[in-house]
Amino acid sequence: MHRRNFLQLTALSSVVIGTGCMTDNREAKQNISAVIKPVVISTWDHGLPANAEAWKILGNNGSALDAVEAGVRITEADPKVDSVGYGGLPDRDGRVTLDAAIMDHNSRCGAVACLEHIMHPISVARLVMDKTPHWLLVGEGALQFALDNGFKKENLLTDQAKAAWEKWLEKKEYKPRINAENHDTIGMLALDNSGKLAGACTTSGLAYKMHGRVGDSPIVGGGLFVDGDVGAATATGLGESIVRIAAAHLIVELMRQRNSPEQACKLAVERLIQKNPNYKDIQVGFLAINLQGQTGAYALQKGFTYALHTPQGNQLMDAPYLVQ
Ligand code: GLY
After folding, report:
1. Domain, as residue range, for 102
2. CA distance 46 to 74
3. What share of the chain is helix, strand, coil (3-state, %, to 5)?
4. For residue 175, which of 304, 86, 278 has the smallest C-alpha distance?
């Protein structure tokens, strides 16, 4: 189903449109007065099975925080997804290094960066949030913390990822660029039945990156931000361009200024274009949700898909984009 038709259907079947003057898209969205919930939204087509897992919790009155953690674990464990967790493409030294962040409605946050050998970095990030006085652990320290807390050390480099890396070694060309085939991060945002928001973001980062490189995904305010009074946002694409505008935080602040989630994502793409002269060579996509359960997305380039699960079902959507 075309994304706009789906949104219309969703709006007609589950929300009450206010009676204000609806002269444009933004104003129309601001007049929606009923809350759609639960809702979960996540990046790319691998978001569909991740959403379905999250829905098992959301649909049973579970918490958004538990739902986003459970949801993205599906992608982390999927060897076919070569940009997240197990099966992720390694760095230039052949090491799979993972970044992840999680955040709840009280703006509590936990993250890990450059973590090796652990299948579920998102659950380590959750433990950092729940059990330590810190928000971010990196590298060896993150690994030690995971092992101390019962996580198993595993080989995350699959035969396919190793073969791809060995082929890359033949030329060693390294040019971070448009990220349409390598579908990148999973970022997931949810609103639960009690009206609480949460978000999670997890990735193996750029293929063949320098060892130690960290992208936007574990950076609170960059690849993920949640403000329980306003909304939540997440990002996918080239982290180096996303952190230049603190994208997820920017989008939440734009929603605070009464922009709809889609409009806030679009304004963030415009800002990203202003700040990244190489914008034509990269892909970036943003997702957002507000406290009313309204969702929106915007991408720099064509090709960004995302998965939206409402009480009406789980659908893959094409994000609007700015660069023709
Ligand atoms: N957005 C993922 C990364 O740049 O690592």
Report:
1. 3-323
2. 9
3. 35, 25, 45
4. 278
How far CA 257 is from CA of 17, 149, 301, in Å, comes to: 20, 41, 26
- CA–CA dist 309, 71 (Å, integer): 12
Ligand 1 pocket test: which of 114, 188, 238 has the largest number of ligand atoms within 8 Å of its C-beta? 238
Q: What pLDDT was estimated at residue 232?
A: 98
- Residues contacting ligand 1 via CB (< 6 Å): 184-185, 203, 205-206, 215-217, 223, 236-239
What pLDDT, in 10s, does the model give residues 64-123?
999 999 999 999 999 999 999 999 999 999 999 999 999 999 999 999 999 999 999 999
DSSP letters of 133-180? Answer: S-SEEEHHHHHHHHHHTTPPP-----HHHHHHHHHHHHH--------S
CATH of residue 238's domain is 3.60.20.30
Tell the residue number behind the tokens 């444009």, with chain if given.
Answer: 24
**Sheet hosting strand 295-299, strand order edge to edge:** 224-227, 231-237, 284-290, 295-299
Which amino acid is located at 158 in the chain?
T
Count: domains in the chain: 1
Which ligand 1 atom minimizes the distance to the CA of 237? 1
